[in-house]
Amino acid sequence: MIRTLFRYFFRALLGIIAFILLWLVLAVALPYIHYGYKAQQEDPSITIFIESNGVHTDFVMPVKTMQWDWSKKIPYSDFEVAGPSHEYVSVGWGDKGFFIGTPTWDDLTFSTAFNAAFGLSSTAMHVTYKRFQPKEGEKCKQMRITSSQYRMLIGYIESSFQSKEGKYMMIDHPGYTDHDRFYEAKGTYSLFNTCNVWTAAGLRCIGISTGMWTPLAGGVMQNLE
């Protein structure tokens, strides 16, 4: 009996290890297979950024353009410190429990990681107002897009917010700083549908080539070189 239980346990452990190794191999390899490019007929006129903290990626956009004013959908009054002097806004999608319950890596718990990995919690949008244009570097890539592309990107990001009576649903929880907040989002986060997969899908929807599957931040950023 004990030998049988040990054999099943050993097989299960091997299966878990094999799954993790396969996930890592695909996470590293598939970003090199590009798809989604679509030629644009217009001249690019809007500058956006893709920003990474090494784990998570965000879209960073001008607050106000001829196409859109994010401050009308995400009012400055939702934030402790935000106003017209904040000229850029970053928006990212992710696991709600991870966003809210893990302000630092020291706060990460097994239950939060497990729920996020296997799609057992809800999702949130993380919004941050920024005073200045981001600086390009290893973790921040600039790109010029057309008005049509930007309108499509706006539609993609908007479709990820939950709304009630036309307003985004702010979560009653403080952000990491005095100029960021969280909002209820649509969709399910998991090992296979991460924040970085969401960012890459947004890029593809506006005709920018990305890796086939990009669960890690590096998989998104490497395609923007």
Q: How would you describe this protein?
A:
- With 225 residues, the chain is an alpha+beta fold.
- It has one domain.
- Helix content is 33%, strand content 21%.
- It has seven helices and ten strands.
- The protein has helices at 2-29, 70-73, 96-101, 110-117, 147-158, 195-205, 217-221; strands at residues 34-35, 46-52, 57-62, 88-95, 123-130, 140-145, 163-164, 167-168, 180-184, 210-211.
- A six-stranded antiparallel sheet has the order 6-2-3-4-5-9. Strands 1-10 form a two-stranded antiparallel sheet.
- The longest helix is centred in the N-terminal third of the chain and has 28 residues, at 2-29.
- The radius of gyration is 19 Å and the shape is globular.
- The N and C termini lie far apart (57 Å).
- The model has no long low-confidence stretch (mean pLDDT 90).
What's the arrangement of secondary structure elements?
Elements (H helix, E strand, L loop, with lengths): L1 H28 L4 E2 L10 E7 L4 E6 L7 H4 L14 E8 H6 L8 H8 L5 E8 L9 E6 L1 H12 L4 E2 L2 E2 L11 E5 L10 H11 L4 E2 L5 H5 L4
Antiparallel strand pairs: 1-10, 2-3, 2-6, 3-4, 4-5, 5-9, 7-8
Main attributes of the structure:
single chain; 225 residues; alpha+beta; six-stranded antiparallel sheet; two-stranded antiparallel ribbon; 7 helices; globular
